[in-house]
Amino acid sequence: MTPERLNILRTAFHTSKLKSLHKNITPTPKSLASELIGLLSRKVKLERKYHSKKIKDSFSQALPNHVHTALQKWALVTQEKMASPLDFNTSYSHYWSADSQNALFGAHLNSLPSQFTGFSVCHLMYDKHTTNLSLRHAIYSAILRTEAIVLYYDA
């Protein structure tokens, strides 16, 4: 983990605490250090679930900043779906993650139960099932909306 990412996580942790988001988490967080250990442990546990090197590698790959900048400028992307506190881009006002503990770092939870809105980028792992679910959800969200939605999939 880079010093920059550690600082991002520290800032996100304290910001979500100030917004009282930590009160809704069970078990109650003890400290930034213990939550960082938990975050890294969950990542390792998730990586062990898959046997494909391609899937495992996708957990630690994120789009480069220049790609995010271009997506924001030219495609009006404002949010990131299916990110992790370990790789979300801080230039977006919102990001979504599947793990409830990630709310400690400012993540909104699980993007699939609600309709996609606006312009988003999705950081998907190389898993056909997850990709199919996400694409299907995006298509149905688009059908049900009157305004445009656009998703850029990083898969």
In short:
This protein is an alpha/beta fold.
Strand percent estimate: 5-15%
Major beta sheet, strand line-up: 3-2-1-4-5
Tally of separate helices: 5
Mean pLDDT: 77
The H/E string reads: HHHHEEEEHE
Uncertain residue segments: none
Question: What structural class do the secondary elements suggest?
Answer: alpha/beta
Structural domain tally: 1
**Portion of residues within helices:** 40-55%
Distance between the termini: 22 Å
Can you describe what's shown?
By secondary structure, this protein is an alpha/beta fold. The protein has one domain. Helices cover 43% and strands 12% of the residues. It contains 5 helices and 5 strands. The chain has helices at 3-18, 32-49, 53-58, 65-74, 128-144; strands at 79-81, 94-97, 108-109, 119-123, 150-154. A 5-stranded parallel beta sheet has the order 3-2-1-4-5, with no helix packed on it. Helix 5 links the parallel strand 4 and strand 5 (150-154). The longest helix is centred in the first third of the chain and has 18 residues, at 32-49. The model has no long low-confidence stretch (mean pLDDT 77).
